Amino acid sequence: MGLSATKAQVSEGGLPAVADPAYTAQLISPQSIPQVSFQSPDPRTSAIQDSINYALHNGLLRIGTLINSDIDFRNVGTITTMPDGLKIWQLRISVPNSRALGLYYDAFHLPDGVKYFLTNSTGKQILGAYTSQNNTDNGSFATEKVQGGIINLEMDISPNVDINAIKFHINNVAVFDKATAYLNQYALESGSNLKTTSVLMPYDSSSPCEVNAACATGFTNQKNATVHIEYLYPAVHPRYVYGATGVMINNTSGDCAPLVLTASHVEPTNQTSNATFSNWIFYFNYQTPACSYSGAQPSSSQSITGASFKARASYDSASNKIAADYLIVQLNSQPLRSYNAYLAGWDRSDALLPLSGTFISFHHPGGDVKKVSTTSVVNPNGNFNGGGTNTHWALTWLTGGTEEGSSGAGLFNNSGNEIGILSGGVTDKPSCTTPNSSGQEISDYAVYSKLAYDWTYTASGSTPLKNILDPTGSNVTALSGTTACGTTAVLPVPNTVAGIDIYPNPVRDILYTAINQQGSAKVNIEVYNVVGARLCSIVAQQSAPTKYRLDLSNYSAGIYMLRISVNNTLTVKKITLSR
Q1: What share of the chain is helix, strand, coil (3-state, %, to 5)?
Q2: Total domain count, the chain
Q3: With a threshold of 0.90, does the pTM exceed it?
Q4: Residues of the chain with pLDDT under 50
Q5: Considering the domain boundaries, does residue 288 fall inside one?
Q6: Structure-derived torsion over alpha carbons of residues 267, 271, 273, 274, reported in degrees to the nearest 10
Q7: What was the pLDDT predicted at 498?
């Protein structure tokens, strides 16, 4: 099972053209950008769906609501042609009083020479550039959530690009009311408090009895292997976006394939086509930076869009009886090195008697930041709704618990190897009776589908798990984990001057620019915000290597552009101001 050649689904970074002062004066005013507006979904309808899911105990977590749309690049927006031939397409999408918006595409094909960006209303959050590297065979795509009720869309089109070759159609706008906490940081405005505080939400969508993942002693690799999954399955629920948990998992070939193991029941229609998973979004490091943390927001999420199908156990949604419960997909690209991703090890050993030791699970209950649950005894004789005999590990949590959204989480043993996949639990007599913000109580009893049982499972046409995790046929019982083979993002910049060092980046207050220029040179350093306004500058005549100091303490957190001109040769750097 080698890693197949595929388009990368991470964005390449950079800044939209509207952030360049050379273009700002020639663009229409932000107030004149065409806008497509939608009415906010009725929260009562979403609450009813949540109640149905909770009553059925189907393990499904709704985190957002879909609005049908018909947004085509050719029919909406405005195109401005710059003197140098660059075409800039702009559009704004608005859904008032929303915490966050996401976009789903049923046609997405960008020719070489096109860069696509998304920003929020404050300009603090920038997604992109998305390019031809994000194209998929079936045209299906999705982009990560944007803070607030407004998304600004921009497409920068090089002069030599045939516009007719661009395929771009948004068929759904997603309005999120869960899994949005990390976006609060982008609502900050300079010199003011949080913008539109009525639609912001702290990271409390799970029960107060849950424990932050950062509180775990050890098991750092297993925490880094755990991801939050955002997905659709329109065949059954075409109106909603769902959330679950998965684990990046190792295989015996040593090819570092970015496999993600989750539960089959989170996608209950038994789909096996790659098209089903091409718009799934996988979020890494959605977690607080410390055990006890009361900051404005948890650490920012990092994501990859799209995966291909590898194997699954079939799921009987009518009876909700589960024997094997596994679904494994392969991400469409390797995670960036900055994600610190890990491919967890596994152990398919079975047992006749209860196991003792330290057993730990990381998960995203209620779509919340990553949590951790622990226990010391695991019973090998569990089952899920009578779906079989000895099919699941059964346990009672000593710390934390599980909820909707935790499904698919891994159960790790003392050695840090995954031994099971979370199918569900019960909340009949929870040790913690404090519910989450949607009224769902924590479950202190859980059952995890055994890798030992899943290993050779073939019922109803299912693909055995061993085919994917042991493609070499080694027949090993356990495999250690390994650091994921992350890639390095390449951020293109114009005519770069050699010998320039920018640090620290991200920066809190003071930014230093060191220029190793030999001989006399005229130096001009300017700081711009993302809408093209110049904030400060330094002009100097330099005759030897020099370090310049810029005080940014008066500016709010967000993305800025540093323009450095040395003897009229320009370098542009993106800097992040963090508070």
Answers
A1: 15, 40, 45
A2: 1
A3: no
A4: 1-8, 189-201, 489-498
A5: no
A6: 0
A7: 46
Selection from 142, 198, 194, 147 nearest residue 173 by Cα? 142
Q: SS3 for 103-166, per residue?
A: EEEEEEECCCCEEEEEECCCCCCEEEEECHHHCCCCCCEEEEEEECCEEEEEEEECCCCCHHHC
Strand partners, 396: 445
**DSSP string of 408-455?**
TPEEE-TTS-EEEEEEEEE-SS-S-----TTSPPPBSEEEEEEHHHHT
pLDDT in the model for residue 155? 97
Question: What values do phi and psi take at 367, rounded to 5?
Answer: 75, 15
Flag whether 278 is in a domain.
no
Task: For residue 201, give both structure tokens.
Answer: 């939400």
Do residues 417 and 480 make contact, with C-beta atoms less than 8 angstroms apart?
yes
- Sheet of 521-529, strand order: 534-542, 521-529, 558-566, 569-577
pLDDT at 542: 79
Burial 383-412 (b: 16+ CB within 10 A, else e): bbeebbebbbbbbbbebbbbbbbbbbbbbb
Q: How far apart are CA 386 and CA 271, in angstroms?
A: 24
CA–CA distance, 156 with 316 (Å, rounded to integer):
47
Q: Tell me which DSSP letter residue 529 carries.
A: E
Q: Look at residue 566 and tell me if it is in a domain.
A: yes
> Where residue 568 sits, what CATH number does that domain have?
2.60.40.3080
The CA-atom distances, in angstroms, between 338 and each of 259, 300, 335 are: 18, 12, 8
Task: Look up residue 192 and give its two tokens.
Answer: 């003011």
What is the distance between the alpha carbons of residues 4 and 330, in angstroms, rounded to a whole number? Answer: 10
Beta-sheet strands, E only, within 232-320: 240-249, 259-262, 281-284, 302-305, 307-312
User: Cα separations (Å) of 264 from 100, 162, 315?
Assistant: 28, 43, 7
Residue 221, CB half-sphere, CA atoms under 13 Å: how many?
19
φ, ψ for residue 460, nearest 5 deg:
55, 35
Amino acid at 205: S
In 3D, which of 145, 143, 125, 118 has the Cα closest to residue 195?
125
> Residue 31 contacts by C-beta under 8 Å, 6 or more apart in sequence?
none
- SS3 of residue 337 by DSSP: helix
Compute, in degrees rounded to 10, the torsion defined by CA atoms 277, 278, 280, 286.
Answer: 120
Rounded CA separation 65/43 (Å)? 9
- Here the contacts of 290-294 (C-beta below 8 Å, separation 24 or greater) are 290/212, 290/214, 291/212, 291/214, 291/215, 292/212, 293/212, 293/214
In a domain, 354, yes or no: no
Strand 167-176 to 87-94 pairing: unpaired
Containing structural domain, residue 527: 500-577
- Bridge partner residues of 550 (DSSP): 511
Token pair, residue 512, equals: 């230093």
Burial of 320 (0-12, 13-18, 19+ CB in 10 A): middle
Residue 579: predicted pLDDT: 65
DSSP string, 452-466: HHHTT--GGGPPPTH
